[in-house]
Specification:
Blueprint: H1 3-16, H2 18-53, E1 58-62, H3 65-70, H4 81-93, E2 97-103, H5 105-116, E3 133-138, H6 144-151, E4 157-162, H7 164-206, H8 208-216, H9 221-256, H10 261-264, H11 273-302
Antiparallel strand pairs: 1-3, 1-4, 2-3
Helix pairs in contact: 1-9, 2-7, 2-9, 2-11, 7-9, 7-11, 9-11
Amino acid sequence: MRAQFVLSEIGVGLRRNLTMTFAVIVSVALSLALFGGSLLMSDQVNTMKGYWYDKVNVTVYLCNKSDAKSDPACAKGAVTEDQKKQILADLDEMNVVEKVTYESQDEAYKHYMEQFGDSPLASSITPDQLQETYRVKLKDPEKYQVIATAFNGRDGVQSVVDQRGTLDNLFKLLEGMNVAALAVMALMLVVALMLIVNTVRVSAFSRRRETGIMRLVGASGFYIQAPFIMEAAVAGLIGGVVACGFLVTARYFIIDHGLALSEKLSLIQFIGWDALLTKLPLILATSLLMPALAAFFALRKYLKV
């Protein structure tokens, strides 16, 4: 097969169907950009989980005098010194516990004022209204239930709270956004495949005379089909390059510069460039193979060779 002939046929085909080729490039670029963005979002959620779950604590809230009057869990009164010592001893003996930190009412009040000092309610809060706590760092964050089972309902314990619960709501939101992006990506992918099939059909119809002559002179089926398949592959590859460029540009201007979220949201550990760069070959390979396969199967129906 002469490469010059194939390349010339590709150029002719792309120019003849310029509008539809442009539509294929745009739809492939958008669908693969969403595909790459979804993969990166999944990596980001996993990175954030690994980062934050390692830092969150299980907090054991101890009963104070106010709780003894209003909370059924503290019906037996505020926590005593003996109860605090026993709770701490039991925590230290548990294999799942890595570290226990005690926070007094005064320390809790100080932390509260640092975080919510500007709140209108801050002026009415006093240290004795806040609770003493044991902040427990676990060796395995998944073992929260072990602490909850051991201390919930115990004398002197008001409640056991896993801080992961707050983070789980955020991660569920991010995962929901990821699913939505995948759904839109799937829709765009269907549109792209339909455009590719339609473009190949129109191209095959417009060149039916040339392909008929090639059949008469004994050209093989693959020789006749190759230009059409490569037209689709080239258009898809251009779309893949555009998608990669979009992802790189978005990463550069949104995370590193421009909006500079990595500086403004220092509490979030964003994925690095290595995570993005490892996705680009997959996007390019998909952009090349997907249109080529779609064209191949379309030609079996619309181009009888």
